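Question:
Now give any protein.
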Amino acid sequence: MAEDQKIIQEDLEITAATAGAAPVQLPGRVISIFPALAHRNFQLYFVGQAISLIGFWLQQVGLGFFVFQLTHSPFWVGFVAAMGGLPILFFTTFAGVYIDKIDKQKLLIWTQIVEGMIAFIFATAIFTHSASLPLIAILAFIGGTVTAFDLPARLTFIVEMVGKRDLASAIPINNGTFNAARFIGPAIAGALIAGVGVGWTFILNGVSFIAGIWAISKMRPVFASEPEAHVHPLESLKVGVKYAFGHPTIFYLMLLAAGSALFIWPYQPLMPVVAQNVYHSGASGLGSLLSAAGAGSLIGAFTTSALSRRKNKAPLVMAGIAISSISLILFSLNRNFLLAHLLLALMGFGILIQVSTVNTLVQLSSPDQMRGRVMAVYLTMFVGIMPIGAFLAGLLADKTSALFAEGMGGVLMLTVGILFYLKGVFKNLSIAAV
C-alpha cells in the first residue's frame, strides 16, 4: 500500500475509534480549519497545555526578574537562561534513544511531575530567603535536562494522539498555543510580582502542571509502534543519527531548521536593544513589538492548520523562508515604530508556517520505531543551536548594531532558501513523497 493511502486508512481507523468521544463537539467549520481538534486526545492536550504554558511564562518572567534583583547584572540573567537551555543542545540527541524504547505517555507524566517539583523548590528557596545564584543555576540546569527529554517525547507523542494525517494540523496548533500563552503569562507575572511577590510566579507554575498531568493521563493513544528489538543504547543512537543525516529530506530540513536558529531567531534576544536604542520605547515598547511577532505567529498557526490536508508542503516552507527573511531585512532598515509592528507580525507569520511545516515533514519522514531519535536530532539542530545563534548575533551587534545583525540574519537565511531552491530541495517536500 502506498504511504499516502496507508495514512488515509490509518486516519479512517482513528476516526472510527474516536468519533463522538471528544469532550466538546466542535462545528464542522472549525474542524475544517483545525482538524486535530476533532480528536478527544488533542482537545485534552490543548486545554492542559494551554494552562501549563501560561505557568511556564510566569516562571520565565519571574526567574529573570529574580536573578536580576539578586545580582543586578544582565550577564547573570543570561547565564541562568543559558544553564536552562544548554542541556537541550547536549542531551536531547541521547534522550531520543530512550524515548523510542519507553511509553511516551508515562514519560511525559513523570517529566511534568519533576518540573512541577522544581518550580516548588524555586518558590521555597525564595520564600525562605535561601535562594542563591549557584542554587538557581543548578535548578535551571536540572529543569533544562528534564526538558531535553520532555520536548522530543512531547512532539513525537502528538502523532500518537491524532495519527499521521492530522499531525500537520496538530503541530501548528501546538506552536500557536505557545505563542498565545506568551501574551497572557507575562502580563499575569507582572501583576503577581508587583502585588504579592516573585515567589508566586513559581508557585502558580508548579500548580499549572496539574492540568497537564491530568490531561496526559486521561489520553488514549490511537497510534503507536512497536519498539525495535533490544539494541545497545550507543548502537541505537548511532543508527538514529545516521538515519537522520543520511535521509536526504530530513538532512536538508534539519539544515533549514539550523539556519533559522542561527539567522532568524536571534531577533528576539536583540529586541530589548532595538526597543531602547532605536525606538526609545522602553519596556512597554518592547512588549508591544514582541506581541506583534506573537500575533503574526498565531495567524501563521491558523493558516498552517487550515492548509494541513494539502500534500505538497513545499509552498509553505518556501513562503515561510521568504516572508520571515524579507520581513526581517525590511525591519532592519525601518525606523517607523508602527511599521515595525507590521513587519514583526509578518516575520512571526513566516517563521511559524516554516517551522511547523518542517517539523511535520521530519516526523512523517521518520520510521515509526525511530521517530524519537530522529526528532531528538532535529531538535538539537534547531532548539539546541538557538543559544549559539543568539551569541553570534550578539557579537555582531556589539561590533555594528542590533539592526544590522538582524538584517544580516535575514539576508543569510534568504540566501540559504535560494540555494536550496536552486538545488531542487523543495521539489520533494510532500506528504506522499516522504
